[in-house]
Design a protein that fits this description.
Blueprint: H1 3-19, H2 24-39, H3 44-56, H4 63-75, H5 79-91, H6 100-113, H7 116-133, H8 138-148, H9 151-154, H10 159-168, H11 172-178, H12 180-201, H13 213-219, H14 224-238, H15 244-261, H16 267-301, H17 303-313, H18 318-333, H19 338-356, H20 360-375, H21 382-390, H22 395-418, H23 421-424
């Protein structure tokens, strides 16, 4: 069987397992077992247990459950309410007015949670009722929330960045810092969309009461805790004072202090946050273990090398290669969640990128934009289902509302291709003592 037939056979087996409702991680393991059993002469048992153990005991992965726990703790605080009250006095003069709280609120919460689902749920529970009460469009509220909440994947700390860093052996602190500037630019593009909506549609919304500068500054005090937490987590890594794992530990301590100050930290909420973090961490670790086993199995067959050589024979320019990968990730996003798409493809994609001379650090930010797009791509866009749980709208309505945000993300991907320095500028100035 040649390389093309082998790739098609493995893809069919994978989609058969996924379509049957088998967990993503177990589907990856199943495909790996078939690959080794029928296409190589290697022992299955020895290959499987050594790979699963090695991938599950990586020291780099210790940052993952800590960042997830930090997000779980903050999800159970009154942080979203504080964000809304602190931001709203400063946004009433902009076209679109308080609709900007969705974007800015998601941007700030993304910087302390690392999860798009947690960002969407936390900010959405607070902003949706307030915006509806003031007469804002449901279409815009749903669309901006579904799109802006994906910034939880781009703005550090990002769980997907950690997964990508582990797979490609890239510095996680550098990946975190590389995502800051593109994340802020993407947030600005989202706000530009809201401004255009406010100017063109001239929505009939309740005008906010005038506030003195003193009152605005007083309300802004509510933003201090989240600002301090962001500075602690991101600043400690950028300065080289802490590794990603140490910064995650600092973030957990900060989140616990914030919850204690707000008196939202009870024994039941602490247990719930631990259980939520444990479940999510185990899910991601299992997917990573399955992907590592599949990567090893495909390596035995020579599939990644063969596909990389085939793509190389097409003599694609780096730009055309990136456009082709962009289309592949958009299609995969229709059927897989972001993390699964990353771990499934990197074994094949990495040799192609190396052959084309594309920086893997830069590509990590590029692929994160693709993963963000997958979060709002039907039929399995995860943010679409989370938003459906928050509202009474159909998935079709939510997907339509999020479509402009999808196009903005596609434009952001093209910006990254045109100006790669957007992702590589800040990491170049990092203190590498803890890299």
């Amino acid at each position: 069987m040649d390389i093309t037939e082998l790739a098609i056979a493995l893809l069919l087996i994978l989609f058969l397992l996924l379509g049957s409702g088998v967990w993503v991680a177990l589907s990856l393991v199943g495909v790996a077992i078939v690959c080794i059993a029928f296409f190589t002469g290697r022992p299955i048992g020895a290959s499987m247990y050594s790979t699963l153990w090695t991938s599950s005991t990586s020291w780099t992965l210790t940052a993952l459950p800590l960042f997830i726990w930090m997000g779980e703790i903050l999800y159970r605080t009154r942080l979203s309410e504080s964000l809304f009250r602190g931001l709203s006095p400063w946004l009433s003069w902009l076209p679109g007015r308080l609709m900007h709280t969705n974007v800015i609120g998601c941007t700030l919460f993304a910087a302390v949670s690392g999860s798009s689902a947690a960002t969407l749920t936390t900010v959405g529970k607070m902003s949706m009722p307030e915006l509806k009460k003031r007469g804002y469009s449901d279409f815009m509220s749903v669309g901006t929330l579904a799109g802006a909440s994906t910034l939880g994947l781009m703005i550090p700390p990002s769980l997907t960045m950690i997964v990508y860093g582990v797979i490609t052996n890239q510095s996680i602190p550098k990946l975190f810092i590389a995502g800051i500037l593109p994340g802020l630019i993407l947030a600005a593009l989202f706000m530009g969309y809201v401004v255009a909506w406010g100017i063109l549609k001239k929505p009939n919304i309740v005008k906010e009461p005038a506030m003195t500068m003193k009152h605005r500054l007083y309300e802004s005090r509510l933003l201090i805790p989240v600002a301090l937490l962001i500075i602690t987590v991101i600043g400690s890594m950028y300065s080289g004072l802490a590794t990603a794992t140490e910064a995650a530990a600092l973030g957990v301590v900060g989140a616990l202090l914030l919850a204690a100050i707000q008196r939202s930290l009870t024994f039941s909420s602490l247990v719930a946050s631990l259980m939520g973090a444990a479940k999510t961490s185990c899910m991601i670790a299992l997917i990573l273990a399955g992907a590592s086993f599949l990567t090893l199995a495909m390596g035995f067959t020579g599939l990644p090398r063969g596909l990389a050589e085939w793509v190389g024979s097409l003599d694609l320019s780096p730009f055309m290669l990136l456009v082709a990968l962009m289309l592949v990730y958009i299609v995969l996003g229709c059927f897989l969640d972001g993390i699964s798409a990353v771990v499934l493809t990197m074994a094949v994609v990495t040799p192609m990128l190396n052959a084309a001379g594309i920086d893997l650090l830069w590509f990590g930010i590029f692929v994160l934009v693709m993963v963000e797009m997958a979060q709002i791509t039907p039929p399995v866009g995860f943010n679409l289902f989370v938003m459906k749980g928050l509202t009474n709208h159909s998935l079709g309505f939510i997907a339509k509302a999020a479509a402009p945000m999808f196009l903005i993300m596609a434009f952001m991907a093209l910006l990254l291709i045109a100006f790669p320095g957007l992702a590589t500028f800040l990491p170049g100035y990092m203190n590498e003592a803890t890299m």
